[in-house]
């Protein structure tokens, strides 16, 4: 079932077109990544998803309800965590959650279940001012999950967290999505985080979605490998490699070369160089998975 559906959405801010006809959907129980550089249109998209601004053209629906026409009904199905959750530092974690629970008419048992889900049981009665950044992120996530939303929106959720905090947050989100059948939309510019967390990813740049791919299929879909090459004598390297039809791009670096070549062609590269008397010191793939696709789709080639 499609929890979130975005169809041909455009958005201008002033005279500048920020979002240029994007379309995607997120299914129940799916974690969907939205990956792009700063300024790609990620934040503008999120502001439209949560009804803060309206698209100039196109539709956004949550559980079949148009976010503009049926704003209250659509957004009642949404929970969101942005970089720094709004929390009352002078209250305990439990008191923060109970404030929200009273407004949303969430029963206490549900509050307790959510506290356990995010792993805050042992510290929930401490004042929030004593919480680490990771604990505050967990509490923000608990607040977003309290009413058991059908859609959870995460905007750069792991910014500022240490490696342990990132791992914990990731596992909590995966568990919540699986146990509650919740769709999760994750906006980020952190390549590794998207690869570890998401089922599918949309690559966005300049307000345009370049591709939407299922992550476990990335390796099969890659048409090129990006290699780092180091040799002992570089005088003839570019001349030799330039004759190889399967190499589409060669970039000289400080300590070697970066090559954009067809998949699994490193043996042929080495063979061609050795045949010309060039000794190869190292050759290895520079990028893998999401990182390589990001370089190809968003940055248009090797760097």
Structure, described:
The strands form three sheets. The protein has a six-stranded mixed sheet with strand order 6-7-8-3-9-10, sandwiched between helices. It is an alpha/beta fold and 303 residues long. Helix content is 33%, strand content 31%. It is elongated and about 75 Å long. Strand 7, helix 6 (163-180) and strand 8 form a beta-alpha-beta unit. The protein starts with a strand and ends in a 6-residue tail after the last helix. The longest helix is centred in the middle third of the chain and has 18 residues, at 163-180. The chain has two domains: 2-218, 3-Layer(aba) Sandwich (Rossmann fold); 222-297, Alpha-Beta Plaits (2-Layer Sandwich), CATH 3.30.70.100. The mean pLDDT is 89. Helix 4 (108-117) crosses helix 5 and helix 5 runs parallel beside helix 6 (163-180).
Task: Compose a concise summary of this entry.
With 303 residues, the protein is of the alpha/beta class. It has helices at 42-49, 71-75, 93-104, 108-117, 133-145, 163-180, 191-197, 218-221, 237-241, 266-275, 289-297; strands at 2-13, 16-27, 31-35, 57-62, 65-66, 78-81, 151-155, 183-188, 200-205, 208-214, 224-231, 247-253, 256-262, 280-285.
Overall CATH architecture of the largest domain = 3-Layer(aba) Sandwich
* Distance N to C terminus: 39 Å
The average pLDDT is: 89
In percent, how helical is the residue content? 25-40%
- Beta percentage is 25-35%
**What's the CATH C level of the largest domain?**
Alpha Beta
Low-confidence stretches: none
Number of domains as seen in the coordinates? 2
Strand order of the largest sheet: 6-7-8-3-9-10
What is the radius of gyration computed over CA atoms, rounded to a whole number of angstroms?
23 Å
The H/E string reads EEEHEEHEHHHEHEHEEHEHEEHEH
Given the helix and strand composition, which structural class is it?
alpha/beta
CATH-level-4 superfamily name of the largest domain: P-loop containing nucleotide triphosphate hydrolases
- Let me know the number of strands: 14
Structure annotation, total helices: 11
């Amino acid at each position: 079932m499609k929890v979130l559906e975005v169809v041909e959405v455009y958005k201008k801010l002033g005279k500048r077109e920020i979002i240029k006809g994007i379309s995607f959907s997120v299914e129940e129980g799916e974690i969907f990544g939205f990956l792009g550089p700063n300024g790609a249109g990620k934040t503008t998209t999120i502001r439209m998803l949560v009804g803060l601004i309206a698209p100039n053209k196109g539709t956004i629906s949550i559980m079949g309800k148009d976010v503009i026409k049926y704003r209250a009904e659509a957004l009642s199905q949404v929970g969101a965590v942005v970089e720094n959750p709004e929390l009352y530092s002078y209250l305990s974690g439990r008191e923060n959650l109970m404030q929200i629970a009273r407004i949303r008419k969430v029963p206490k048992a549900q509050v307790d279940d959510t506290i356990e889900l995010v792993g805050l049981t042992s510290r929930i009665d401490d004042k929030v001012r004593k919480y680490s950044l990771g604990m505050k992120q967990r509490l923000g996530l608990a607040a977003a999950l309290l009413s058991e939303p059908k859609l959870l929106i995460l905007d750069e959720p792991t910014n500022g967290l240490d490696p342990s905090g990132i791992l914990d947050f990731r596992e909590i989100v995966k568990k919540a999505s699986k146990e509650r059948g919740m769709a999760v939309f994750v906006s980020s510019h952190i390549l590794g985080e998207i690869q570890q967390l998401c089922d599918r990813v949309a690559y966005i740049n300049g307000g345009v979605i370049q591709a939407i791919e299922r992550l476990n299929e990335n390796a099969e879909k890659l048409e090129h490998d990006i290699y780092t090459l180091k040799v002992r004598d570089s005088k003839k390297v570019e001349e030799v490699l330039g004759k190889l039809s399967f190499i589409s791009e060669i970039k000289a670096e400080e300590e070697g070369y970066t090559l954009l070549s067809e998949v699994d062609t490193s043996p042929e590269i080495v063979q061609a160089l050795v045949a010309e008397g060039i000794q190869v010191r190292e050759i290895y793939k520079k990028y893998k998975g999401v990182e390589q696709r990001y370089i190809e789709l968003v940055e248009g080639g090797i760097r």
